[in-house]
Design a protein that fits this description.
- The chain is mainly alpha-helical and 138 residues long.
- It has one domain (2-125).
- It has four helices and no strands.
- Helix 1 (2-15) packs antiparallel against helix 2 (22-50) and helix 1 (2-15) packs antiparallel against helix 4.
Length: 138
């Protein structure tokens, strides 16, 4: 759900014009904020239920490292896209298209995770998940 809401906000930002109402821009950023809140409150707890308990600290660490790396490289990539597309649309249309593509693939991956979880017994939707067979041998 968070991926679809985020995709919606980026599509709105991509296809608005300079003389659009400021409320449409506010709507897009409110949707983006809601999607971020949903994502953060649902994503991090899922790590605990998708990896064996002995590897959860490693999974959290690798996840944080991956996110930090993307937070470092993201602005560089977007700056490059803006510089390369500046003469066509001021650069920002290309940047929002990059965000739309990322949000689209995020929605696809979320759908795949949902399908895999559904086939695996919906462990991520259980209020008190029990991981049978996921414990590491000591």
């Amino acid at each position: 759900m968070a991926s679809v809401i985020q995709l919606t906000s980026f599509v709105i930002l991509t296809f608005i014009s300079d003389n659009s109402s400021k409320w449409i821009i506010y709507l897009a950023f409110v949707l983006y904020g809601i999607s971020g809140a949903i994502f953060l409150t649902s994503y991090w707890p899922c790590i605990k239920f998708t990896v064996p308990s002995g590897l959860s600290a490693t999974a959290y660490g690798l996840n944080f490292c991956f996110q930090a790396t993307l937070m470092f490289l993201g602005p560089i990539l977007i700056g490059y896209v803006i510089d390369k597309t500046k003469r066509y649309s001021g650069g920002y249309y290309g940047a929002t298209l990059v965000f739309v593509v990322i949000a689209f693939f995020s929605s696809v991956v979320s759908g795949i995770v949902f399908i895999c979880d559904y086939k695996g017994g919906r462990i991520l939707y259980d209020r008190t998940p029990q991981l049978e067979g996921m414990e590491l041998d000591s």
